[in-house]
């Protein structure tokens, strides 16, 4: 089943809305919510627009639309097509209700009232095992989008790779800085060597010129 949902602005990971979770859910998902925060900070314009990320007994499903990320944490056994249909419902309603305001808000959870719609919609997408024959969910299941092309990744691998890329970027910047220092030092050394090599000759030529000038004047 859907356990928790959060909506953030993609460009800066500012939280816009979130489901109100009970204390038991908060404790159970504490680590996974921290992982979600790390994930939000790693998303870029080149990130997959829809992705499922497995983490222990849960899966993070997210979709990106109009600079907004909709992410839900669900049990790993929960059908992916239901998770993404749920997120699609949220994205359509959120875009209609708050879309023009997304770029202007500055404070976190500016659209806290969206929780009411999230809670109502989540109840419609409860675990199929809890739904009886002929239920709304059964009828929904027949019409839902095909999600076979949506990638599934592992959270640890994804975040580890992100850390590695960050370290590589930092290392690359350091190497460029050090390389520039070495180039400057090499130029100084070469200039000093040239002075030592040609300074005596220059001094002799200067003396000769002075003597010639003195003699003929």
UniProtKB/TrEMBL annotation:
It comes from Russula ochroleuca. InterPro entries: Longin-like_dom_sf, Longin_dom, Sec22, V_SNARE_CC. One of its GO terms (biological process) is endoplasmic reticulum to Golgi vesicle-mediated transport. Residues 136-196 form the V-SNARE coiled-coil homology domain. One of its GO terms (molecular function) is SNAP receptor activity. GO terms for cellular component: endoplasmic reticulum membrane; Golgi membrane. This is Protein transport protein SEC22. It comes from the Eukaryota. CDD domains: Longin (cd14824), R-SNARE_SEC22 (cd15866). It holds the Pfam family Longin. It is found in: Endoplasmic reticulum membrane; Golgi apparatus membrane. Belongs to the synaptobrevin family. Residues 6-118 form the Longin domain. It is a single-pass type IV membrane protein. The chain crosses the membrane at residues 198-216. Its main location: endoplasmic reticulum. Keywords: Coiled coil, Endoplasmic reticulum, ER-Golgi transport, Golgi apparatus, Membrane, Protein transport, Transmembrane, Transmembrane helix, Transport.
């Amino acid at each position: 089943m859907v356990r928790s949902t959060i909506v953030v602005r993609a460009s800066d990971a500012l939280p816009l809305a979130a489901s109100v979770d009970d204390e038991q859910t908060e404790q159970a998902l504490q680590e996974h919510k921290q992982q979600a925060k790390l994930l939000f900070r790693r998303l870029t314009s080149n990130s997959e627009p829809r992705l499922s990320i497995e983490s222990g007994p849960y899966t993070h499903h997210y979709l990106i639309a109009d600079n907004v990320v909709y992410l839900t944490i669900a049990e790993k056994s929960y059908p992916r097509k239901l998770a993404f249909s749920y997120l699609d419902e949220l994205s359509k309603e959120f875009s209609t209700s708050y879309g023009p305001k997304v770029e202007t808000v500055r404070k976190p959870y500016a659209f806290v009232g969206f929780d009411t719609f999230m809670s109502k919609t989540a109840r419609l997408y409860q675990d199929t095992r809890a739904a009886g024959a002929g239920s709304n969910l059964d009828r929904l299941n027949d019409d839902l989008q095909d999600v076979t092309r949506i990638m599934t990744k592992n959270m640890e691998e994804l975040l580890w790779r992100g850390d590695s890329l960050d370290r590589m970027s930092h290392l690359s910047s350091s190497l460029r800085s050090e390389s520039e220092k070495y180039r400057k030092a090499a130029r100084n050394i070469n200039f000093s060597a040239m002075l030592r090599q040609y300074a005596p000759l220059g001094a002799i030529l200067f003396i000769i010129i002075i003597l010639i000038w003195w003699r003929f004047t």
